[in-house]
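Weekend entry, working from home. Most of the wet-lab plans are on hold until the incubator is repaired, so I used the time to fold the two sequences that have been sitting in the queue since the last round of cloning. Logging both here for the record. First:
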Amino acid sequence: MATWHWTDDDAGYEDWLVCHPTGFQANLTNPPGARYFRIHRATCRLPDRSLPGNSNPRTGRAYSKVTADTVAELVAWARAHLPELQDFTEANYCKICTPTD
C-alpha cells in the first residue's frame, strides 16, 4: 500500500498523476478534515480547477490531495487519518469520472 498526501507540492503531485494514469486521487481540505474528501480517477480534471497564479494552486492553500493506486488505499488512508470519516457515501465519489477499482 502506497499513498501520498500532497501539500504545497504541485510538481510532485502532477508527476505522480503522469506516472500513475490508472491510479486515483482524493481532493480534501488543507488541513485534512472529514467535511470534504472526494475520490477521483487520476485522469479526472475536476480536482485541478484552481487559481493558476497562486503558488502550488492544487496542493496549497485550502486544498491538498491524496493519491494511491486503488480506491481501497484512499479509503484506508481516510479511515486512518480522518477517524470521524468512517462511512463513505455517494458524496465521497466523483459523479463525473465514477472512480472504482
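Second, folded right after the first finished:
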Amino acid sequence: MMWKSAPAWFRGIIDLALSVVFALIAISGIALYLAPSGRIAETLGWTFLGLNKDTWTNLHTYLGFAMIGIVAIHLIVGFNSMITMLKMGFKKAKKKTVVGLVLMTLIMTGGYFVFGALTGEGESDHEGTGSAVISNSSVEITGSMLKSYTLDQLAKAYDVPVDKLVAVLKSDYGIEAQPDELLEAIEVKNGLDREVFKEYLAEAIEKIRNNS
C-alpha cells in the first residue's frame, strides 16, 4: 500500500529515472546495431562515443535490468491510477479507448515483425544462408565464408593465387586487402555492402580463372 500512495516527488523521481535509462538504452542499442561482429570490432579497434563493443554490450545489459526494476516500481506506484483511467475511458469514450488499445497492439506487433525481418536478414548474412553466385560460375561466396575465411584461405579454396586476387581486387574494384585479413574485416575496412562484396569476390576469382 505504501507504494500505491507514493508522494508526487517520488513519482517524479521514478519518471525521471525511467526517461534517463530509456535514453541510455536507446543510445547503447544504436551503438550495438552499428557495431561489426565481435571479432571484427576487436580487430579494427571499433569504438562508438569512445567506448568499445564489449563496454556497450555490458552497459546495455545492465541498463536493461535497471529498466526492468524501474518499470516494475512505476507500475506498482501507478497501477491504481492506470486502472481508474482505463475504467473512465471505457465509460466516457469506449470506442476511442478500444481503438487506442488496438492501435497500440498493432504498432507493437508491427514493430516485432519489422525487427524480426531486419535481424533475420542480418543473421542470414552472418550465418551463411545468403550467398552470391555469378551466372554460369562455380564460385559461391557465403556469409559464413566472410566471417571465418581469410583472403588467403578463400584463394586456396578456389585454387587461385592469392597475390593475383589481391591485385585484381585493388585494380578492378579499388579494394585494399591483405592475404591474412579476414574477409569480413576487408568488407568493413573498405566500407562495402555485404552482397556487393560477395559479388566482387566471385567476379575477381572468375576473372583470374579465365585468364589462367
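Plan for Monday: verify the second prediction. Residues 131-211 form one domain.
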